[in-house]
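sry for the spam today, last one i promise. struct tokens for design, 345 residues
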């Protein structure tokens, strides 16, 4: 019969071996999990792609939810037979090219060793000119800024896209576009589930994440969102706590992007999207202050994103100046102001 000391001497190395085995197994799971088509297509920033589809018909029928056959080609010559359909609300109405959802064939993805997550959202320029490209890049950078703050964010990746309209056998000029992670992939990555309830009370939210979303929207000057009605946010229930993570999207109405069609929410009383209004959504000040400290700690990385090589100098400087007005106002501020008005645009 072993003594307590002998038992301990046997158990200790066995424990560490078990721990190592568990860790090794977890590492194996992570490294062998197949990549999604979203990850494969977006490994390189501003990757060049060609989309062949009946664009003329899609634009004529942009109110439909019908899928249309299409082909996506990468710069390396890889070809995917896909389906696309118009999506969105406001931008579907006003854009030169309606936003689309892309659906890949699961069998083809599996055959190439990829995950079965087969849908990606495509955000296209509202205007068929340099201004349209500039706005897309600025919105893309807003997505990337939030992604620097938290993994609980929608992944957005910039691409350089040529659309070949098979209806008239003519190609559009290359344009910048955003590939946006579909919510199914978002939920799988976060190992949660979509919360589709409206009017979710503040105490059922992940307070830190919700406050981060609130302060980020405040920083970029966006009032075109609301947690209670899930306007331009998605709620994802975390697997352990059951609390809902707040995932914001669609930043074209923000002061940081300053799309010419953007207007502030009428409920704020603002006259310009460049002014900021704090939509605190019932969150406690302590959580908002903590989120503000996170923004301050990541100031340099977000400012660096404004210097994107894909963005022109003037637009880059405009984004930088706008962010600085926020941080300058927040520097050493004991209380978070509800309203920040710019003296000049």
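last one done:
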């Amino acid at each position: 019969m072993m003594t307590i000391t002998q038992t301990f001497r046997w158990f200790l190395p066995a424990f560490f071996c078990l721990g190592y085995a568990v860790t090794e197994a977890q590492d194996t799971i992570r490294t062998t999990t197949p990549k999604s088509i979203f990850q494969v297509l977006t490994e390189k920033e501003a990757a060049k792609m060609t989309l062949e589809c009946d664009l003329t018909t899609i634009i004529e029928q942009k109110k439909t939810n019908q899928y249309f056959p299409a082909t996506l080609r990468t710069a390396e010559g890889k070809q995917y037979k896909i389906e696309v359909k118009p999506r969105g609300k406001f931008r579907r109405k006003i854009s030169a090219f309606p936003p689309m959802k892309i659906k890949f064939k699961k069998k083809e993805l599996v055959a190439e060793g990829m995950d079965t997550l087969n849908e990606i959202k495509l955000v296209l320029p509202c205007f068929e000119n340099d201004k349209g490209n500039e706005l897309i890049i600025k919105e893309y950078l807003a997505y990337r800024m939030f992604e620097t703050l938290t993994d609980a964010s929608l992944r957005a990746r910039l691409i350089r896209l040529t659309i070949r309209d098979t209806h008239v056998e003519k190609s559009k000029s290359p344009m910048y576009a955003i590939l946006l992670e579909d919510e199914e992939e978002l939920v799988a990555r976060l190992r949660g589930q979509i919360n589709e309830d409206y009017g979710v009370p503040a105490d059922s939210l992940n307070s830190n994440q919700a406050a981060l979303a609130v302060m980020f929207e405040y920083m970029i000057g966006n009032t075109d969102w609301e947690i209670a009605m899930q306007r331009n946010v998605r709620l994802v229930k975390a697997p352990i706590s059951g609390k809902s993570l707040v995932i914001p999207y669609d930043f074209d109405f923000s002061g940081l992007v300053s799309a010419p069609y953007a207007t502030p929410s009428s409920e704020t009383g603002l006259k310009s999207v460049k002014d900021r209004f704090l939509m605190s959504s019932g969150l406690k000040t302590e959580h908002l202050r903590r989120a503000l400290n996170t923004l301050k700690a990541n100031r340099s990385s977000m400012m660096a994103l404004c210097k994107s090589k894909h963005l022109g100098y003037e637009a880059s400087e405009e984004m930088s100046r706008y962010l600085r007005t926020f941080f300058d106002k927040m520097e050493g501020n004991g209380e978070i102001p509800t309203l920040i008005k710019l003296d000049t645009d």
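The two ends are 82 Å apart (CA to CA). ok im logging off now
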